[in-house]
Amino acid sequence: MKIFFAGSIRGGRQLIPTYLYIIDFLKSNDCTIISEHVGSQVLEETEAKMTEEEIFEKDTTWIEESDCVVAEVTVPSTGVGYEICHAVAHKKPVLCVYEKGAKVSAMVLGNTSKYVTAISYSDKKQLEEILQDFLEK
Length: 137
Hints:
137 residues, alpha/beta, Rossmann fold, five-stranded parallel β-sheet, 5 strands, 18% strand
């Protein structure tokens, strides 16, 4: 399964360890993560060499080529919100996960599209269960 992973980049990078955990879990379940760079510590340096248009084209093309999207939405991010909408417009299933108690946008939690599922997690074990359930659908 080819997965586009979305996580905050310019909105805040404090969840890089969680992004890496999710990416590693998905890869251990034979998934290909086409946006694995989101978990990179040096991502901002890499993207600084690209134009805004190049970043947009790369990400939207990858979403269109993916089977689904997994988004970590604990940290508010306009870009992640856009990526979720782009995936929905292309009829891609989207799993949004977030830390229990996080103030997640109503635009994510209130989305009634059949393509969007948003679930909170309180620990890594629960996060793994949520991801596993999504992969089995």
